[in-house]
Design brief:
Elements lengths: L1 H37 L16 E7 L6 H9 L8 E7 L5 H14 L3 E5 L7 H11 L5 E4 L10 H5 L8 E10 L6 H23 L11 E4 H6 L10 H11 L3 E12 L5 H28 L4 H11 L3 H12 L10 H31 L4 H4 L3 H10 L1 H12 L33 H21 L6 H20 L19
Parallel strand pairs: 1-2, 1-4, 2-3, 5-7
Antiparallel strand pairs: 4-6, 5-6
Helix pairs in contact: 1-6, 1-11, 1-12, 2-3, 6-12, 6-14, 8-9, 9-10, 9-15, 11-15, 14-17, 16-17
């Protein structure tokens, strides 16, 4: 009797998780539909500024010794009148970056640039706090924000500024490019992840009139929009998402420009990537808790409220995926064979966790790389496996946000990597040690047993999907642990010498 009750409870939990994952899959299909429907809708500036307005470029920096010189050099090469440009270096660094930044700023001043170096004694509010402090002395009517690992194209401002001739436009976001896309398997898969979000989701939401968000960098704000919307706030780890929704709730409109690409460096080590994903996931759930009730109390159209809900709750999918990993057990995994198991277990996993994701990223790669997209999608199984491998890391972030567990804004280390031959492991920035790679290894071993069990019991339709679970956890765990091994790395290059500044 107890066994039957336990099986009933397991079945209810399992089907509930699959239903939730299926809902996220349907949402992905809807985003694809919106993208295809609106992708050819032309977005042009309503007019042109004459003369050009003054722009303040804000560069939030914290311990970026390997990339800060590259950033300031690229900003100095922007094709924009020098007398119409103010550069704010918001440097909270506590290491040698301070001296490098000061030297670069001094050189720019000698060349006639209006450069303001702001160094805070403390990091109150982290990046949001630095941006808020800089805004107080910003002379520009418009503000361009660039993180330290970005390299803006010289025509960035000239291709974007004229959209602000519409007084209702509060923010313009450009699409991120990838300086080191081909550096390793990890960077290739990251690029595919970001391409899907930055092309499909941002374009679909922007051009269909739904809410979308500033990505934290590579975009321009109208200063009045920031101030009118409550300014930068640091009660979440996603200050960009938070301000974006507050601004759109206040009536401001945003524009996404997929054809204007601002390249950036992708994290080359697994621990840095996991830290970044944890921060983004936790911050989005914090923003969801903070703003979703306000959204539903507003007078916005229902379709905007519904899409905003799907957007802000999207990372709960990682929690469901982690639950699925726990619920999938060979001894109680439902019917042990035949068409009933295929119908109740294999097919739902295939449709909910694989097909929608595959179609989503294939669509993005086909649009971005029309000649080589078939080559790009060969990495799709790796993308699916990495998403599964990240589920524990990101599910933890969701739970921390739900229980109001506070944590600092942890920066993602960057090493100035642009070519495959560049080493990075003998550098001064080392990620924090964590026990989670050991937990991920335990899950990898568990799913190895599960693969063996499926083969022995001739459940062959399950094997490819179980291999993705096994491979995903194994890759994430070994790559995380490999950062502390002296001779090998599973996410980047072999250790040799330090990356030159």
């Amino acid at each position: 009797m107890e066994g039957s009750l336990g099986h009933v409870i397991w079945t209810i939990c399992y089907l509930s998780v699959l239903a939730g994952l299926s809902a996220y899959g349907v949402h992905r299909y809807f985003i694809i539909y919106l993208f295809l429907k609106n992708r050819k809708r032309e977005v042009v500036p309503p007019g042109r500024f004459d003369p050009l307005p003054k722009v303040t470029i804000q560069l939030p920096i914290f311990n970026e010794v390997y990339v800060v010189e590259r950033l300031l050099r690229s900003v100095s090469e922007l094709d924009y009148p020098q007398d119409r440009l103010q550069i704010q270096v918001l440097d909270d660094s506590t290491d040698d970056t301070r001296e490098l930044t000061a030297a670069c700023v001094s050189g720019l001043r000698e060349r006639g640039f209006d450069v303001q170096l702001i160094h805070r004694v403390d990091r109150t509010g982290f990046k949001a706090g630095a941006l808020a402090v800089g805004l107080e002395s910003a002379d520009g009517e418009f503000v361009c924000i660039l993180d330290a690992d970005f390299v803006p194209p010289s025509d960035l401002l000239r291709r974007t500024i004229h959209f602000f001739t519409d007084p209702k436009i509060g923010m313009i976001q450009t699409r991120w490019g990838h300086l080191n896309r081909g550096y390793s398997l990890l960077t290739r898969v990251q690029a595919m992840f970001l391409d899907g979000h930055l092309l499909l989701e941002q374009t679909a939401r922007s051009r269909s009139g739904r809410f979308f968000n500033f990505n934290g960098t590579a975009g321009l704000w109208r200063k009045a929009c920031i101030e009118n919307s409550g300014g930068w706030q640091h009660d979440t780890l996603c200050e960009d998402l938070d301000l974006s929704y507050r601004a759109q709730l206040a009536g401001w409109r945003f524009i996404f420009l997929p054809d204007v690409v601002t390249p950036a460096e992708l994290p080359v080590d697994m621990n840095g990537f996991k830290s970044q994903q944890h921060r983004w996931t936790k911050g989005s759930v914090q923003t969801c808790k903070k703003l979703l009730p306000t959204i539903w109390r507003s007078k916005l159209p229902f379709f905007i409220k519904l899409e905003a809900t799907g957007h802000l709750m999207s990372n709960f999918a990682y929690l469901l995926l982690a639950c699925l990993c726990v619920l999938l057990h060979p001894s109680v995994g439902g019917p042990q064979g035949g068409w009933l198991r295929t119908l109740l277990i294999d097919l739902p996993i295939f449709l909910a966790a694989s097909v929608s994701v595959a179609v989503f990223y294939i669509c993005a790669q086909r649009v971005l790389h029309p000649r080589t997209w078939l080559k790009e999608i060969l990495f799709l199984p790796c993308l699916l496996a990495l998403g599964i491998g990240l589920s524990l890391n990101n599910a933890r972030a969701v739970l921390e946000a739900l229980i109001n567990h506070r944590s600092d804004f942890t920066r993602t280390p960057k090493y100035g990597i642009e070519r495959r031959s560049q080493p990075w492991r003998a550098c001064k920035y080392r990620p924090l040690k964590s026990a989670w790679p050991v937990v991920e290894m335990i899950f990898a071993i568990y799913f190895t047993y599960f693969v063996w069990f499926a083969i022995v019991h001739k459940q062959f339709l399950s094997v490819p999907f179980l291999l993705m679970f096994q491979g995903g956890f194994l890759y994430v765990s070994l790559s995380s642990l490999g950062r502390w091994w002296p001779r090998f790395s599973f996410g980047g290059a072999r250790e040799t010498a330090a990356v030159p500044a």
